[in-house]
Amino acid sequence: MHHAPEADGTALRRCVLAVSVLDDIDLEPADDGVLVPDLTGVLVTWQMIRQVVGSEPAESETARHRVGVLLRLHRLAADLGDEAAAGFREALRLVALPPGHADHLGPDWVVQALPGGALELGYGVYGLLDDPDRCVPLPPSLAARVGARGRDSWAALREYTERMGALSAARLARDGVSGVIRPVGGCDVLALLTSRTLRKHLAEGDGVGMRAVASPTRQRAWYDLRHVDPDFVRTAWHLTDGPERGLETPLLVTTDEVAVPRQPRRGRHAAL
Asked: Which domain of life is it from (predicted)?
């Protein structure tokens, strides 16, 4: 299997400098990592930074976004001091993302893969940064520090998300054929699709056991015919900012899986 080379130290330093300028974060690069001057004794190591950058080019917009989130969350944890663990645990949410997404923090972040292969699941926190309605993945370097690791913690998060999915299904049943799924309880629509209750409601809604669902953005998903048109999904996906994007193609949802349908091969069969 081919693995992308790790970003070198010079490229990471340029990435951090860009984050400092663009996000207005005071930083002091050091041999071991990055110091935020107003956080005495807090060091974000180069390994922590490299971990969230992953295989992305270190000077890309995606890398800068991930590093900016990492540094702001570490700064917040330091600001909260002894209250950090409680504050972060209260904000914990399940995040579901496709591999390669701008917010996806790599294999160390993934706790579980959803059957079907479309989404990978990990810890996130809701409402702690600039946007009170936004959920961001929790970097592995912070998860253990705030007590967001372990079987019991993950089971509680899955159970909460299942309840939010059930609430979403109840709302869809109450509202009739609206065809729109919206966030519930700090869970965006990709997280809600990890709920078996919601998947069952969608898949069995028209009696065929599966449903096409379009989620070009993490804030809305549609299952009416007009919005699952591939051209609509692709256009909406491209018009959405990277961190808020969902999937570029419609999903196929069954009670047990969320999958990306295989694209037809070009040539004779496609022409047919």
From this structure: Bacteria
CA 206, CA 203: separation in Å to the nearest integer? 7
Instruction: Give dist(CA 24, CA 37) in Å, integer.
Output: 13
Task: For the chain, state the CA radius of gyration.
Answer: 20
Tokens 């919601």, located at residue: 198
CA-to-CA distance for 16 and 231, rounded, in angstroms? 37
Is 149 strand, coil or helix?
coil
| Torsion of the alpha carbons at 235, 206, 157 and 249, rounded to the nearest 10 | -20
Percentages helix, strand, coil for the chain (3-state, rounded to 5) are 40, 15, 45
* C-beta separation of 22 from 64 below 8 A: yes
- Compute the CA torsion angle 54, 147, 217, 237 (nearest 10 deg): 0
Residue 272's identity, in one-letter code, is: L
Instruction: Give, in order, the Cα–Cα distances in Å from 29 to each of 15, 33, 140, 235, 247.
Output: 11, 6, 21, 40, 36
Q: Which position has the token pair 């054929």?
A: 177
∠ CA 113-65-84, nearest 5°, is 75
